[in-house]
Amino acid sequence: MTSPAPLSDNNIILDTDSYKSSHFLQYPPGTHKLFSYLESRGGRFPATRFFGLQYLLKRYLSVRVTAEMVDEARDLITAHGEPFPYDGWMRVVREHGGRLPLEIRAVPEGMLVPVRSPLMTVTNTDPALPWLPGWFETMLMRVWYPTTVATQSYYLREILRAALEQTSDRAAEELPFKLHDFGSRGVSSRESAGLGGLAHLINFQGSDTLEALRTGRNYYGADLAAFSIPAAEHSTVTSWGKEREVDAYRNMVTTFGKPGGIYAVVSDSYDLKHAINVHWGETLRQQIVDSGATLVVRPDSGDPAAMVRLTVQALAAKFGTTTNSKGYRVLSHVRVIQGDGVDEQSIREILQNLILDGFSTENVSFGMGGALLQKVDRDTQRFAYKASAALITGPQGEYFQPIYKDPVTDPGKRSKDGVLDLAREGERLVTRQYQTFDTDYPDSVMRVVYKDGEVLVDETLDVVRGRA
Question: What is the pLDDT of residues 24-77, one digit of tens each?
Fold first, then answer.
């Protein structure tokens, strides 16, 4: 049996929901301009840190539509059971050279924006193609993912910042490396790893997600978006056998214990208490001290708050501490990283225990995996992309049509109407709703980032981090 011909991975016409292909037949006759917007309607956090649109624009909307793409999309979509706007798509090819006649305005990436504010707006620039802003809702909506990861990462950073400023003399130096990305294996795809991993890195600089470095360099001009350290996993420890556990640890100290270096060793393969009190704290203690490097002990099972508390106290007893200017104890020669069961709640519990016990927050770092990059969805911040205005030419001439929904069964889903903008009024960001397309958006913080197939704003990761 002959296999069907493969479909092109680069055909952006197909990057939509099936029913979108029928919408060109559903707008009022004479509709020639539509305006859509994206917002977070609320959710877990009171504001969102916008990020990732530049990637989507450069990766997808920079592709030129070809006649072959149109034919492929028509054949698939009509067989699939939907009508297809063939003439409209061929107009994109013939009249626009394959460039999408859209204008996209957006807030700067890295900006913290209160919920229920427009983050992005989309308008067609060809009056013959008013259905295009809706066609690309599916693809553009996916900016919810990096924005939500960046938002969660930001609020975790603020928790860590407050604890460091209370307990450490080195808060500014410590903060960028307090939350390390362990999430690459826990996400749904390589693209999620790259985009979600980079979203985290607008707030921090520690990561084991190499795909984030690739995305950072290719789409945000980042030479090196993050750093990592040598670290053991259970297989590299247990391959020595239980009887030679101490030899596995000795090998780490000998190999990576160089002056000024730092390396991490998971230490719960058999008995965490024994590993700390005997192997690390007695057998290898002097070698660790003499090496001039910092050993980071990783407990990896049990209740996170209890295990970190145990580890810090045991290491303090074996390696000693100093007391900083704020009156908190700092471990000598060693640190701790918790990489299991890490989320906002466990981070808060661990930090609370540290402070209650008189230890500086700088003693502990965190590695966060699935909860950082995967345990979010579009409803975490209740993202929505809605049409809000149209220009229509009817029997009485051209008129402006506000568009909104207001379901009686869920007032929280009442959408905005009008041509929307986000403007600065003093220290506040406010949403403005115009009942006309003829506006120059005074005091706007939004910018035209894409128009007629061209990406107009191309910022580096450093610039985005500057806002964050």
Answer: 999 999 999 999 999 999 999 999 999 999 999 999 999 999 999 999 999 999
User: What structural domains does the chain harbor?
Assistant: 12-142+382-467 (3.20.140.10), 148-373 (3.20.20.70)
Q: Could you tell me the two tokens for 324?
A: 């900083």
Note whether 199 and 52 are within 8 A (CB). yes
200 among annotated binding-site residues? no
Model confidence pLDDT, tens digit, residues 170-186: 999 999 999 999 999 99
Containing 71, the helix (H) or strand (E) segment is helix 67-80
Residue 185 annotated as binding? yes
Q: In sequence order, which residues have a C-beta less than 8 Å from that of residue 28 and are 6 or more positions away? A: 390, 392, 394, 401
Helices (H), 102-167: 132-135, 137-141, 144-167
- Write the CA distances from 242 to 246, 253, 299, integer angstroms: 9, 18, 17
411 marked as part of a ligand binding site:
no
Strand order in the sheet with 118-124: 397-402, 383-394, 31-40, 118-124, 102-106, 447-451, 454-455
230: annotated binding-site residue? no
- Residue 298 is assigned to a ligand binding site: yes
Angle at Cα 130 formed by Cα 433 and Cα 451, nearest 5°?
Answer: 75
Annotation-wise, does 234 bind a ligand?
A: yes
Helix (H) or strand (E) holding 198: helix 190-200
> What are the Cα distances from residue 199, in Å, to 97, 174, 212, 431?
33, 19, 8, 25
pLDDT tens, 326-371? 999 999 999 999 999 999 999 999 999 999 999 999 999 999 999 9
| DSSP one-letter code for 369 | -
Q: Which of 28, 42, 199 is nearest to 130 (CA)?
A: 28
Alpha-carbon distance of 21 to 23, in angstroms, equals: 6
